[in-house]
Write a structure and sequence with these properties.
Layout lengths: L3 H29 L1 H5 L2 H10 L3 H25 L8 H30 L6 H10 L4 H25 L14 H28 L10 H7 L5 H23 L18
Length: 266
Amino acid sequence: MVDKSEKFTQLVRLGYFARAIFYAVLGLVALTSAGRIAEGTNGVFAAIEDYPAGTLILWLMVIGLFAYALFRACSPLFDIENEGSDGKGWAKRLGHAGSAIGHLVLAWSAYQFATSGSASSGGAQEAASGVLSVTLGGVVIGLLGLAFFATAFFQFRKGITGEFMHRINAGAPSATRWLGLAGYCARGVVYLVIGWSLVKAGFMSGGAQQVKTLGDALASLAGEGAVFTLTALGLILFGLFSLVLARYRCIPDLDPGGKMPKFRMG
């Protein structure tokens, strides 16, 4: 009999699998299809849709990305990863909250492609425009940009120090450490670009059109030569790293009451 904790673990692993597909395709599209990567995140889902069984893959991504978003949302709510309630712990938990929102947006885009074959464009810019239209909206957008700068720093730090290995089962492939290093550093570069776009939109009156999504940020690096190529390759490796996590990540156990879960290191 499968209990609630096992079902939760299975959904989280599906989430890592969906994340693996997304990042691997994002990097692959960037290297092989200039037209598609120019479409940003929507170009990635359009590419997936064109694959054999593409619609099925999109539905798996809808479920997986939504499950991963819920997993990340449990961090600020219940401290599911035992980060603690000091300043450093809350910084990580709020970062996980941002990840939850980002992956919910990706899940919604995947759902739109799975059901209608397309997704609305400019969603991030429209949302930013709404925020900028209210009093102190520019400050909010600018501060969000600074938060992305901080997230980028933690991505680089996580990749360089290898602290992510503490929550990966010992049976993981030996290359996991290096896949994580390359992947997290590539994500750090992309988050820096997103952060800068938000700072320009919020603090420099650049307007909502400056705001970039994950795919847009990578596309904006297309003219940067080696930086673009290395970042795209790093994102492909991050996809492979996420595939390893789908199998070997240590997932926290939920307690019988569904709150204050206990972390399992095996």
